Amino acid sequence: MNFSFLRTALAAATLSLAVCASADAATITGAGATFPFPIYAKWAQAYKAVSGNDLNYQSIGSGGGIKQIKAKTVTFGATDAPLTADELAASGLAQWPMVIGGIVPVLNLDGVNAGELTLDGPTLAKIFSGAIKTWDDPAIQKLNSGVKLPSAAIAVVHRSDGSGTTFNFTNYLSKVSPDWKNSVGVNTAVEWPVGIGAKGNEGVANNVVQTKNSIGYIEYAYAMQNKMTYAKMINQAGKTVAPSISSFQAAAGNADWEHAPGFYQILTDQPGAGSWPITAATFILMPKAPQDVAAAKEALKFFDWAFANGAKSAEELDYIPLPSSLIALIKKTWASDIKDTDGKALLN
Amino acid sequence: MVDVAIGDVGRDRAQKLAKTLSWLKLQDDGFRLLTLSAAIAVLLILGGVIASLVVGSLPAIRAFGFDFLTVQTWNPVTEKFGALPAIYGTLVTALIALLVAAPVGVGIAIFLTELCPYILRRPIGIGVELLAGIPSIIYGIWGLFLFAPAVQKYVQPPLIAAFGDVPILSTLFAGPPYGIGILTAGFILGIMVIPFVASISRDVFETVPAVLKEAAYGQGCNTWEVVRFIVIPYTRTGVIGGVMLALGRALGETMAVTFVIGNAHRIAGSLLAPGTTISATIANEFTEAVGDLYTSALIELGLILFFITFFILAAARLLLMRLERQAGA
After folding, report:
1. Are B130 and B122 in contact (CB under 8 A)?
2. Is A221 touching B (CB cutoff 8 A)?
3. Are A264 and A336 in contact (CB under 8 A)?
4. Which residues pair with A103 in a beta bridge?
5. Residue A240, SS3 per DSSP
6. In angstroms, rounded to a whole number, what is the distance separating the alpha carbons of residues A230 and A117?
7. Pair type for strands A196-198 and A54-58
8. Chain B residues with CB-CB distance to A under 8 A?
9. Which residue of B254, B288, B292, B299 to mutate against A (max A Cβ within 10 Å)?
10. Would you give the DSSP letter of residue B225?
11. Which whole-number Å values give the CA distances from B196 to B48, B207, B250, in the listed order?
12. Which residues of A touch B258 (CB under 8 A)?
């Protein structure tokens, strides 16, 4: 009798405690880029365990993220294609990079294994613009003297859906090839001169695996997880580099963030002997004077926590955490840029 | 006069009856109003969809005008857009789908109603209906991972080799065998819409009076002749209706096509080459479309698809009406 009473009381107490906790807990809402979704989801799970706060992130695409944060329907937006300082000023937004990824050329060529083929930017641009049509083209042969290349036609595979991956890839080709810049240009989707379009990283990966003599570009994580044949690249410094966490981090570390207003910095073709040339950052957008101060504060706390505790889980998913110098710079921006109605910084 | 004749008791009963009748009438009116408003809601929603599509595509209409329908470029960088490749891909894939689905679907229906042993009827019938119930994304995944590689290995190389020297067919079946492309997308669409043709044809074939068929058999017709001269003419409009329903479905199908068509904004002479359709373009690019003109061009594509579907289905109705009139005359 007594015992069962105790149990009821205990249950009631636990219940009311749970109600209290959920009343305190806040939900941070965000929307945007699909590329960082897996790591944001993983961070959100871990963060809920320590803080009780939920993160509701909708991976609707960078374009959608930008639209939603401009319309102020979410606490933060996320984009793979950063906004310029002018665009940020026009809509009163602050921006900073959150995590880094790498884009790698993947191929399916008989007798060629991962890392055996080396390409440089101009050659890659010519392949994707259709100027180089066969694998034994002198331009490719010159970079790969020891590799036996077939005289087969190159099958180009690209993304068909609009994506940050395409934005960064075409940005790189535009930086290294004036021809590409003038004829195709940079965007989340472009008018591809040749090749077939496939949906998503998984679509490109799958089509490359299935099609002989093909080449495509995908996120590093997909290339690793599907054990695909990737190409090495010759970077701005003229050195041959392989895609790896250290070469992505080198590119991010060598970028001149200090002189990039609004952290508008695209990590392709960065200087430095160890830099992977097609590195990409994904960005967070938040209003400088948020309407919902409490929610914005919670969001910043989450990002702060992720910078401090999220590096290991990012690397597990083949994302690359930001260098600590850059994190310090971002925190300084938070303090000076994001303020409540009284002009006080949100995060102390 | 009547009141007097019936008397007081009768008057009470008449009043009660009148009350009941007016209540019934009220119910009837209410029911009519309810169903009428449901029917009108459809028109309102349709009008709303058209209106919002038109408003959304105004910027693109203003920027490109009629050129939108005739230009092949689709360049998000310079914001120059034309719908021609998408329109072409939509129509060609739907046509291939019909070429696949109409004979197979009608064949299934004939077998089920005329030839099938009784024991097999239910399993095959259920199989056809299950085929209709598979979500299109599943067809897309199946197409990408299993069907396209098979086409790439076993269908395209022989096609290219066989028609390499034939004048027109050599351009239709040219180019590297990617596996995915317009032909593959058309095939997948065809498989997807077979159930529409098959189940509607089966239903209308079952309406053919047994007397007609028995008379024909009595005259010494074989099964082929009965189907050819009795069943098909009797149910022609119904079969065409089923085919049109399938066509409507094929025109708007999105996910399955997106996976296997190759998504290139180009018109190629070859059916093996990658192409795109209107709905695939919208699904692919809408989420990451930054810029008002880009979004507006995609919405205008939607408007065009709306019109294409509308006009093709309207044309089908006209055809059916004419056939019915001929049959009646």
Report:
1. no
2. no
3. no
4. A219
5. strand
6. 8
7. unpaired
8. 73-78, 144-145, 148-149, 152, 176, 178-181, 258-259, 262-265, 274, 276, 280, 283-290
9. B288
10. H
11. 29, 17, 11
12. 160, 199
B290: nearest CA partner in chain A: A63
ipTM over 0.85: no
CA dist A202 and B37 (Å) reads: 47
Which residue in this structure is represented by tokens 């919902």? A292
Distance CA B111, CA A329 (A): 74
* Inter-chain CB proximity B176 and A192 less than 8 Å: no
Q: Which residues contact A178 (CB under 8 A, 6 or more apart)?
A: none
Closest approach of A141 to chain B, Cα-based (Å): 23
Tens of each residue's pLDDT in chain A, 348 residues: 445 545 555 555 444 444 444 445 678 899 988 888 889 999 999 999 998 888 999 888 787 888 889 988 999 999 988 998 999 999 999 999 999 989 999 999 988 888 899 999 999 999 999 999 999 999 999 999 888 899 888 999 999 888 888 999 999 999 999 999 999 999 888 999 988 888 888 889 988 998 889 999 998 988 888 889 999 999 999 999 999 988 998 998 888 888 888 899 899 999 999 999 999 999 999 999 888 888 898 999 999 999 999 999 998 888 889 888 889 999 998 888 888 777 777 776
| C-alpha to C-alpha distance for A193 and A208, rounded to whole angstroms | 18
Q: Rg of the Cα trace of chain A? A: 23
Beta-carbon separation of A162 and B289 below 8 A:
yes
Residues of B in contact with A210 (CB under 8 A): 148-149, 152, 179
Q: Give residue B267's identity as a one-letter amino acid code.
A: I
Residue with tokens 């991962």: A114
CA angle A278, A279, A285 (to 5 degrees): 130
Strand partners, A198: A159
Is B173:B270 a contact under the CB 8 Å cutoff?
A: yes
Burial of B146 (0-12, 13-18, 19+ CB in 10 A): exposed
Torsion sign (Cα): A48, A347, A321, A80: positive
DSSP state, residue B179? S
Tokens of A18: 């749970």
Which residue has 């290991």 as its token pair?
A312
Distance CA A53, CA A227 (A): 36
Residue located via tokens 């496939």: A198
Distance between CA atoms of residues B252 and B93, nearest Å: 11
Beta-carbon contacts below 8 Å between A and B = 101
